[in-house]
Write a structure and sequence with these properties.
- The chain is α+β, with helices and mostly antiparallel strands.
- It folds into two domains: 8-43; 47-178, Nucleoside Triphosphate Pyrophosphohydrolase (Alpha-Beta Complex).
- It is 18% helix and 37% strand.
- It is built from three helices and ten strands.
- It has helices at 87-99, 152-160, 167-178, and strands at 8-16, 22-29, 36-43, 47-54, 59-66, 71-75, 78-80, 108-113, 124-131, 145-150.
- The strands form three sheets. Strands 7-4-9-8 form a four-stranded mixed β-sheet, with helices on both faces. A three-stranded antiparallel β-sheet has the order 1-2-3, with no helix packed on it. It has a three-stranded antiparallel β-sheet with strand order 6-5-10.
- The longest helix has 13 residues, at 87-99.
- The protein is elongated.
Length: 187
């Protein structure tokens, strides 16, 4: 077996840009090179996203304006991981907060992914869960967030025509498909 030389971190510096984002500057000695290279990435809270299926087969999604892309987007319910709670509790709470649905059973962890290994230091926690048709009678929709319910075929159509194009949420759907929790023909 051949010996492999790897790059290594020489030093790093953190600069807090806001309560949500910290710039990480890293000096790296790349394998086979003599000069140090500088890289930048962002530290931020982990993402938590849930693909939920109601007992009637409909999928709750949310629609909201996203300033980063200056568009209204369609997304799966989700939020940011707070330091004092588990990703699973965020999945349950965000689903209830954004769609009014409580989970029937324990959410199933589909995986923990890196959103962007080149620029982001956080992770994406992906869950699947089944929910009942009934929404909580105490649910008050978030201002600026619209909850919608689509069939698997409607979601497929939204993906194919480019309306649903959040790459990380497409990854969550792909994980659910490959693990057998979700199919396009589910009724």
């Amino acid at each position: 077996m051949s010996s492999t030389t790897f790059s290594r971190l020489v030093s790093g510096q953190l600069t807090q840009l806001s309560p949500w984002v910290t710039l990480s500057t890293k000096q790296v000695l790349k394998a086979g090179e003599k000069d140090i290279s500088v890289y930048h990435s962002f530290q931020q809270s982990d993402y938590v996203t849930t693909l939920a299926i109601r007992t009637d087969g409909l999928i709750p999604i949310v629609q909201q304006y996203r300033p980063a892309v200056e568009q209204i987007t369609y997304e799966l319910p989700g939020g940011l991981l707070d330091r004092d709670v588990t990703p699973e509790s965020i999945a349950v709470n965000e689903l209830l907060e954004e769609t009014g649905h409580a989970v029937k059973d324990q959410p199933k962890l589909l995986g923990c992914l890196y959103p962007d290994t080149g620029r982001l230091e956080n992770r994406l926690w992906a869950y699947f869960v089944e929910v009942s048709q009934q929404q909580s009678p105490h649910w008050n929709p978030e201002i600026g967030v619209a909850a919608l319910w689509v069939s698997p075929s409607e979601l497929h159509e939204m993906i194919m025509d480019g309306r649903f194009k959040h790459a990380l949420h497409l990854a969550v759907i792909a994980l659910a498909l490959t693990q057998g929790f979700f199919t396009w023909d589910r009724r």
